[in-house]
Amino acid sequence: MGMEVELPDDFRCPISLEVMTDPVILPSGHTFDRASIQRWLDSGNLTCPVTNLPLSPSPSLIPNHALRSLISSFLAQRPTAIDAAADNRDALLLAPLSFPSDAPTLAAVLRLAQRGGPNSRRLVADSGAASVLFRHAAAPDPPDLQDLSLRTLLHLTLDGDDARLGLVAEGALDPVIAALRGGPAAALAATLLTSLAVVDVNKATIGAHPAAIPLLAALLRYGDGRERREAATALYELCKFAENRRRTIRAGALLPLVRLTREGSERAVRVLGLLAKCREGKEEMRKLIGFINVLSEVLRAGSPRGIEHALLVLNYLCSDSREMAFTAIKEGILDLCSVLAGDMNPNIGKNAMELVLRLEKEQFGGYS
Q1: Is 33 helix (H, G, I), strand (E, B) or coil?
Q2: Per-residue b or e along 104-122, where b marks 16 or more CB atoms closer than 10 Å to that residue's CB
Q3: 8: preceding bond cis by omega (within 30 degrees)
Q4: DSSP string of 193-239?
Q5: How far is 112 from 90, CA to CA, in rounded Å?
Q6: Averaged pLDDT score across all residues of the chain
Q7: pLDDT (tens digit per residue) in 158-208
């Protein structure tokens, strides 16, 4: 029991002898845990449990904030024996991990990353287990080991930006991108890329990988429903970085995104909103027959977020193109926007009003 935390006696309630969580001071000057002293008083006792001096019928209980802060700081800095034992157990689990591993071992590592909390996830990340997880993530056979490895890596990213940066620095991209090439793990690999791309530096690193965005575009074209949704989500995160918008257009993702938009995907519309910010994106959108019609359907029946981004795309397309503005008027978008300009959602109202002004300029005088 050498690892047991030695708690100062003043941290323990004189009644329960347990560490106090809500210490309060009696008029006698002694401190007790609120729950314990309240039970003492509720039982009809009118004396101080320590001094046996009489108390008033309803003695005041004054919070001891200073002691409470001391207890909290002490416990935060001193791990308990249970914590230490858990760390030792987890370390013993990770020590023999090597490639190739097996399903029971990787499942245990996944449970550790899922349920062990931040300390356990950091232990997995710092143990060298990532290299084993990377190798299994890249290998589709056997598929259960690939799935377990990708899931574990996904949970490791939950520890924040440092964890995401660390995984990329250790070499996560090649195996995760390899898993995008098809098979049952492709959707999970796209989800993992989304999590890694939350960090701005990683957006640039992932986008610069020659296979990342092309494989996500391929998932959009040929994947099943879940794969297409996860690919669109990954592209939405990646396209917050300007250069990745051009890469996405060059990878041929526009047409499958439009198809997904037609099927009612809000996330696809949001990706289009980002792509319309770059010149290449606008040019390709203007070439697509029926594209304005797809956006008009979003305005009629889409979600509020979808409507907001469809309006954004239309504003970009019509800002310097009389042809696009004329097509939008023919599709009835001016009338739709006249209604949407009064929407309670301020972003919808603002974008709709901007589009109304643009289309009316074309209708009543054209561009200078």
Answers
A1: strand
A2: ebbeebbebbeebeeebbb
A3: no
A4: HHHHTTSHHHHHHHHHSTTHHHHHHHHHHH--HHHHHHHHHHHHHHT
A5: 8
A6: 87
A7: 888 888 998 999 999 999 999 998 788 999 999 999 999 999 999 999 999
User: Taking the CB of residue 304, how many other CB atoms lie within 10 A of it?
Assistant: 13
Cα 255 → chain centroid: 27
- Tell me how far CA of residue 66 lies from CA of 20, 62, 79, 285, in angstroms: 12, 12, 21, 64
Residue with tokens 């023999």: 96
- Which among 305, 292, 274, 367 has a CA at the least distance from the CA of 336? 292
| Dist. CA 50–CA 31, nearest whole Å | 10
Q: How far apart are the first and last CA of the chain?
A: 84
Q: What is the dihedral of CA 180, 233, 149, 152, to 10 degrees?
A: 170
Residues linked to residue 12 through DSSP beta bridges, in sequence order = 19
Interatomic CA distance for residues 35 and 336, integer angstroms? 62
66 in helix, strand or coil? helix
Backbone angles phi, psi at 206, to 5 degrees: -65, -45
DSSP-derived secondary structure for 83-150: HHHHHHHHHHHHTT--SS--HHHHHHHHHHHHHSHHHHHHHHHHTTHHHHHHHHHH--SSHHHHHHHH
